[in-house]
Amino acid sequence: MNKTTIALLILSVIIAGGLSYFQYFYKAKSKSKMTKLLAFLRFLSVFGLLLLLINPIVSRSSFETIKTPLPIVVDNSSSIIDLKANEIAKEVFTKLSSNSKLKDKFDIQSYSFDSEFQPSETFDFKGAQTNIDEVAKNLKSINKNLTFPTVLISDGNQTSGSDYVFSFDTNNKVYPLVVGDTTTYLDLKINQINVNKYAFHKNKFPVEVFLQYAGTKSVTANFAISQGNNVLIKQSVSFSPSNKSAVINVLLPADKTGLQIFNASLTSSESEKNTYNNSKKFAVEIIDQKTEVAIISAINHPDIGVLKRGIETNAQRKVTLLKPNQISDLNKYNILVIYQPNGTFKQVFDTNKNLKINTWIITGLNTDFGFLSQQQDQIDFKMSNQKEDYLTNFDSDFNLFAIDNLGFENFPPLENPFGTITPNENASTLLSSRIRNVDTEQPLLSFFDNQGKRNAYLFGENIWKWRAHSYVDKKSFEEFDVFLDKTIQFLASNDSKKSLIVNHERFYNSGDALEITAQYFNKNYEFDEKARLTIAVTNTKTKQVKRYDLLKTNNSFKVNLDGLSAGQYSFTVKELNSNASYSSTFEILDFDIEKQFVNPDLNKLKQLASQTKGAVFVPKQVDNLIKTLLENEDYKAIQKNIVKKTPLIDWVWLLVLIAITLASEWFLRKYNGLL
Fold first, then answer.
1. Which among 205, 203, 202 is positioned nearest to 194, based on CA atoms?
2. Degrees (nearest 5) of the Cα angle 208, 128, 507?
3. Using one digit for the tens of pLDDT, what is the confidence trace for 627-674?
4. pLDDT of residue 496
């Protein structure tokens, strides 16, 4: 307490004592025990009230011992069972987590992981994917700014996520405890197949297959790709201890339209411990049409290359780059992307007035807005010569098609002349603009749908920066390219508006996330948040039917069908209030990625230990691991002095005491006839 508070407390004692003396002793004829008791109660009451008025801060010190965290993380994926290491993994976890000396030194944290990371002390080893990279990210977040060791009980075989060797903090030691038989067995494996989801009828499509071998002798294997009973490709491949991998590149004919299932296999006369990884199915949807997109521009700009690359990530799209004065025939194109039009585009607009090809117009600093205003009546422009940077706001109520927010608000600004952009009442705006933190209430990306004629407008150049930012943020171009593809898909379709729109893939690999999304629109074509959507999924072989409700997300309804076994399925999505329905099919390919391994990835775990200055252990060395952790002087408990400051007014018991003393004084005075 400071000097002022102490002085006030002394003054309070004097005041309380003075009032008590004046009330009960000054000129009093009797100084009985009762008088003294009443004076004492009055002193306590007055002093307590004065204390509340002064409200001094009371400090209390306590000491807390903070131990170093010791995360013990167990691989809960099904590959642990396949390697017959599930019981050993449980045993070593129990031995580590229950060790009294480790408990004294460390704050033991128990976790499990497969595709996700969660606190757990029990394990069923049924995870369909392994993501060790997720372990690193979560431990960094949970034990932020701390130095701590990690015990990783795993086989080291990762099936999803980034390379975990470089994901862990190099300042924090990782001690991998390898479970599974590390003995090298002869094993032939189809490691990966690269193939496009789509191919075009009467063409050939490329297939790239990565083969892998583990063993100590030379082996000749037979590689084949078949469809049903027909063998399409067959060739021999030689492996040896010095040649443990091979890449096969083939072209397969796209003879039949629709979803086509193929099987790649790798066999030999040698006996193998695991034959599940000797074959792998893949699927390709053969289509008989292609969307032709023309990007027309009078200038060179990075946006054009980004648009072409992003659109063509979908094999159903073909992009042609054109100059406005070099166009002979627009009739063969399904979509026109008109980039920064000016007077040289007059022939393009005049021709398209008759052809009525859906267009996407992108403006920028080189756009002639006077010319553009004359060529269309959907947007009114009042522009200046001043350049402005426009940031983005995402409209979650947009309902022309399902699209997720990619973090548009954080994207770099687009450049466009400053001015007023006014769309007519039929516009649907996905992105609106803002200047710094001020909303302009003007569109940045708008769509129009008028009796099947569809148009889109993007008001700003430098969309290439958006794609680059998306890659930096997501480590992939995929999400941004999906955004471009959905824009093109909207323009490519001339279908009339439907009340129920369902998005799904034609095939999935077992173990992959199996999600189906849907949107339902009312009679005014507004997204109906109160819709009741259900889905009935039928296995076409067993006729077993499963029913699910679709749950609402931001601007769509979604259902997760994980857990379905491999096979062909038909399904129907129905809106219960209107009975609107949509039916289709999909197929789940039999592929369990967790069954691809015959050994732990010992080399990868050794790299991880080396990268973090830890060490690798096996189950029989668990005592050595405990000894290493206990003897490491880097991990010491810290005693922390915690000072807790509490205002006196927060003391409830002081209020209770004041109430008791006042009540007692009144009762005694009443009882003794002093009132």
1. 205
2. 50
3. 999 998 888 877 777 777 777 777 777 778 888 888 887 887 777 776
4. 55
E strands present in 268-330: 279-287, 291-297, 317-322
Contact 490, 454 (CB under 8 A): yes
Q: Which residue has the tokens 């002869």?
A: 186
Higher local confidence (pLDDT), 537 or 329: 537
Q: Are 19 and 46 in contact (CB under 8 A)?
A: yes
Q: E strands within 340-452?
A: 358-363, 379-394, 414-423, 428-435, 438-450
Give the pLDDT band (50/70/90) at residue 503. Answer: confident
Which residues does residue 455 pair with via DSSP β-bridges, in sequence order?
359, 448
Residue entry with tokens 């979908």: 314
Give 166-190 pLDDT, tens digit per residue. 999 999 999 999 998 877 788 899 9
pLDDT in tens, 339-351: 999 999 999 999 9
Q: What is the pLDDT of residue 295?
A: 94
HSE value, Cβ hemisphere, 13 Å, CA-based, for 46? 19
Residue 45 confidence (pLDDT) above 60: yes
- Under the banding of pLDDT at 50, 70 and 90, the label for residue 243 is very high
Structure tokens at 126: 């049924």
149: exposed, middle or buried (Cβ count in 10 Å: 0-12, 13-18, 19+): buried
Residue 632: CB atoms within 10 Å: 13
More confident residue, 161 or 626: 626
Supply φ then ψ for residue 298, to 5 degrees: -95, -5
The beta strand positions in 94-214, using DSSP E, are 106-113, 117-119, 150-154, 174-178, 187-195, 198-200, 204-214
| 332 class by beta-carbon count within 10 Å (0-12 exposed, 13-18 middle, 19+ buried) | exposed
Q: Where are the alpha helices (DSSP H) in 55-131?
A: 79-82, 86-97, 100-105
Please give the Cα distance from 644 to 652 (Å, whole number).
17
Q: Is the separation of the CB atoms in 510 and 589 below 8 Å? A: yes
Query: In this structure, are residues 309 and 223 in contact, taking their beta carbons and an 8 Å threshold?
Result: no
User: Mind listing the pLDDT tens digit for each residue in 354-386?
Assistant: 888 999 999 999 999 999 999 998 999 999 989
- Using only the alpha carbons of the chain, give its radius of gyration: 37
In 3-state terms, what secondary structure has residue 427? coil
Q: Are 89 and 186 in contact (CB under 8 A)?
A: no
Structure tokens at 34: 């009762």
Nearest-angstrom CA–CA distance, 259 and 263: 14
Could you give the CA distance from residue 201 to residue 501 in angstroms, rounded to a whole number?
Answer: 27
What ranges make up the beta strands (E) of 311-413?
317-322, 335-339, 358-363, 379-394
The DSSP symbol for 652 reads: H
Q: What angle do CA 670, 672, 675 make, to 5 degrees?
A: 40
Q: Does 140 have pLDDT greater than 60?
A: yes
Q: Which pLDDT score is estimated for 326?
A: 82
Phi, psi (deg, nearest 5) at residue 538: -120, 125
CB 321, CB 304: distance < 8 Å: yes
- Nearest CA to 47 out of 82, 8, 2, 90 is that of 8
**What distance in Å separates the CA atoms of residue 298 and residue 301, rounded to the nearest whole number?**
10
Name residue 259's beta-bridge partners: 285
pTM: 0.59
β-bridge mates for residue 509, sequence order: 589
Least confident of 33-37, 161-165, 390-394, 419-423: 33-37
